[in-house]
Amino acid sequence: MGLNFGHSPEIQSLQQKVRQFIDDVVIPREKEAAADLGRLEAISGELQEKAKEEGLFLPQMPREAGGLGLSFEDLAPILEEAGRSLLGPRALNAAAPDEGNMHLLYHLATPEQKKRYLEPLLEGRIRSAFAMTEPMGAGADPDLLQTVARRKGKAFVLSGRKWFITGAEGAAFFIVLARAEEGPTLFLVDGRNPGLQLLRTVPSMDRWSPGGHGEILLEDCEVGEEAVLGKVGEGFAYAQLRLDPARLTHCMRWLGAGVRAMELAQAYATERMAFGQMLQDHQAIQFMVADSHMELHAARLMVWHAAWKYAKGERIRHETSMTKVFVSEAVGRVMDRAVQITGALGISEDIPLSIFYREVRPFRIYDGPSEVHRASVGKRALYRRLRP
Ligand SMILES: Cc1cc2nc3c(=O)[nH]c(=O)nc-3n(C[C@H](O)[C@H](O)[C@H](O)COP(=O)(O)OP(=O)(O)OC[C@H]3O[C@@H](n4cnc5c(N)ncnc54)[C@H](O)[C@@H]3O)c2cc1C
Q1: Which residue has a Cα nearest atom 12 of ligand 1?
Q2: Which CATH number does 9-108 carry?
Q3: pLDDT of residue 51
Q4: Ligand 1 close to Cβ of residue 161 (< 6 A)
Q5: Alpha carbon of 19 to ligand 1 centroid (Å)
């Protein structure tokens, strides 16, 4: 069988439907959200109802979990379309961190844990958070994990401090990584547990995540043994189970934002005059558009290839590292060019380019900074004598 870069007619038609939904239903709500980010959650809730009516909800989940039952490779163009608006992924209930948490719960949770945490999450009734990073502990290097889980009879008592926990404010539950005697372990901690305190929402350059990025204190945070997600001591392996596909779904969504940025920049270039000709007729502008198209095209092929391998059940650690570095950096460059092409309009919030620019920057840091992924790719290539 030869190479096949296309998707089936059914997936193409679903992609078209998502594009139309984003254009007609989601994008018209962007200005309202930008004017009052406190309304993000309410707007997302209304959009979710519309996505349910249109049959576009939960594209990433299997049918038995109420999703569209797409393979990972078929998910790529769908999340790319959703990513054209920052409100899109949440409208489809396919946004981080819930999307990665759903994946983890679907594969690891007990029937009771699924009923309590996964079901309401799938329905969009609650939000969740994933708490791994610590101010001076686990970060780029997760081995520095400082949060501990001490046994107290059959229960565990968690102590530590986490920060940059997306969606913390208002999260119904947290998946917390803590070090038990047997090793790093994942715990499901109720947001109302008196031992879990939201110290603050960290002011940050990106602002479009409902619940912000929280700093939380775990102090005498007692949970029963039924709070362990998966097996005690397997936390790092499970975090990886979450991260490999989650890095790719991030790439899919951010690719869509890059596409939209170029759509906006190109539209401006066809309407704006400078020095006796339209912007689109200046070669400097053509070069910026060309470079962006080339990078988005390469990014899309990398995402599709890694997704295709993942769908076949193959290991994709190497591919996700390469793809995550390339896509996060390429989309950043695309945003920068789009702002440059649109001049002052790009800096304004009349169009969402300056917002995209701010929101995409952290992607080079979370889910593994570029330097860490580069180091892994380089080591693998050199020590395992990989052919390029
Ligand atoms: C917007 C955003 C959302 C986030 N959401 C979450 C969340 O929901 N849950 C959660 O647990 N965490 C979250 N994080 C935290 C994120 O996972 C960490 O920021 C990331 O793992 C890096 O850790 P750190 O910030 O402590 O950086 P550090 O570990 O302090 O690293 C700082 C810098 O050092 C450099 N560096 C590190 N290691 C190497 C190396 N081996 N070689 C060369 N250079 C290196 C890199 O440039 C890196 O950026 C989020 C972060 C951001 C910015």
Answers
A1: 133
A2: 1.10.540.10
A3: 98
A4: no
A5: 32
Report the residue among 86, 133, 165 best suited for mutation to probe ligand 1: largest number of ligand atoms under 8 A from its CB.
133
Range(s) of the chain covered by CATH 1.20.140.10: 236-383
Domain 128-229, CATH 2.40.110.10 — does that match? yes
Ranges for all domains in the chain classified under CATH 1.10.540.10 = 9-108
Q: Among the atoms of ligand 1, which is closest to the Cα of residue 368?
A: 21
Q: Do the strands 128-131 and 173-180 form a parallel or antiparallel pair, or are they unpaired? A: parallel
**CATH architecture for segment(s) 236-383:** Up-down Bundle (1.20)
Residue to substitute in 209, 366, 373 for testing ligand 1 pocket (most ligand atoms within 8 angstroms of CB): 366
pTM, rounded to two decimals? 0.97
* pLDDT reported for residue 1: 62
DSSP string, 88-141: HHHHTT--TTHHHHHHHHHHH--HHHIIIIIHHHHHTS--EEEE---SSSSSSS
Ligand 1 pocket check for 166: Cβ under 6 Å = yes
- Report helix, strand or coil for 75: helix
Which residues in the chain show pLDDT less than 50? none
Can you give 267-316 as a three-state secondary structure string?
HHHCCCEECCEEHHHCHHHHHHHHHHHHHHHHHHHHHHHHHHHHHCCCCC
Residue nearest to atom 35 of ligand 1 (CA): 371
- Predicted pLDDT of residue 116: 98
9: CA distance to ligand 1 center in Å?
Answer: 40
pLDDT at 189: 98
